[in-house]
Design a protein that fits this description.
mainly alpha, 10 helices
Length: 213
Amino acid sequence: MKGKIAGVFLSACIIASCSTNTHFLIPGGNDVTTKKISIEYLAIADAYADLEKYDKAADYYQLAMKDKKLYWSAYYKLGRTYALAKKWSDAAVVYEKLLERDPSNVNLKLSQAYIEAMSGNLDDALIIYKKLLEEYPDNETIPVNYIIVLLSQGRAELAEEQLGILKQKFPDNKSIPDLSKRIQDALQGDGSAPSPSAADPPPVDAPAPDSAQ
């Protein structure tokens, strides 16, 4: 993977070097070269993200965003990188802007709700999840995450009620046994449960909004 980054980076440097040669001018050549460089930046960023070097990836996604045609794709990946790096406040800004552009994208909404929960804004996360439950009644990921946030707020009885609904609508959901145990532990204890954790990974692998492609 390191060799991949080096190769991509070298390619970008060669393109940049060639662009300074003023002896052979090609109509529209500067635009073509700029786009090639931006594409290389995007590839470098992806490579760093694969290595979980999220700070480096973010830097190159921002460079790729200078190309108008790549802006939204790179911006989406930037937000995903922030989320994976647990930079929740930065991720929240990106996902809010993406939702303004594509307000019907359920995957972005799920990511936004998760980011709010991980930021400690449980009330805001609950509001989003509750609205999503109404808008997308056939999506079984939403009630699972809703129950987890309820537990994190110490609302075990309401979580138990929602679990009953989950069992009725989605009896084969694989999260039911774990949720049942969490709820019983909470009810037998003080009613509280740990905050949302990596045990329920963020849905940041969702497709970019349609307008970003």
